[in-house]
Fold this sequence. Notes:
Elements: H1 5-19, H2 25-35, H3 40-64, H4 69-89, H5 98-102, H6 105-114, H7 117-127, H8 132-151, H9 153-191
Helix pairs in contact: 1-7, 1-8, 2-9, 3-6, 3-7, 3-8, 4-7, 4-9
Amino acid sequence: MTFTWPGFLAAFMVLFAVIDIVGSLPIIVDIKRKSGQINELKASLIALTIMIVFLFLGEKVILFLGTDVNSFAIAGSMVLFFLAFEMILGVELFSQDETEQEIASVVPIAFPLIAGAGSMTTIISLRAEYSQLDISLAIVANMAIVYLVLKSTDRLERWLGPGGVAILRKAFGIVILAIAVKLFSTNLKAIF
């Protein structure tokens, strides 16, 4: 396990693009409205823990459960599909009771929004090219950015205004839908 700047930077950029915390801002704003609040530190630390554990044990856990990475990615793509459907059409598919509102920082923020199927399959892919130390540090750096974005959600929402958030919500809903379809089709081909 040796550190290299090129490996760290490459892993960081790939994870930053996949996590897409800035693009997830409309979802986060919507979840915050429904649940009342989000514990930014808790969400970031739980996502960090999930990703680090997955870096070291992910493939073994998935195989132990009798499934594979492709099936895991397909399941995650379905969750993303329905989140995108909510964003684009303005309907509510995921209703939350009071218990679920209390855990909004964990589900769906930490998992599957931040540490979801896309980031987990990416982590497994990165293991083939970069050291676990490079990937671990890239995950930590990305979670620092996630924390800052989550902490700034109110300011960003005020700056964008209701119209800006609505436009972002629809636009990123389409992007998330496209990612979900790509994740689904790519992994479906790999299974068959």
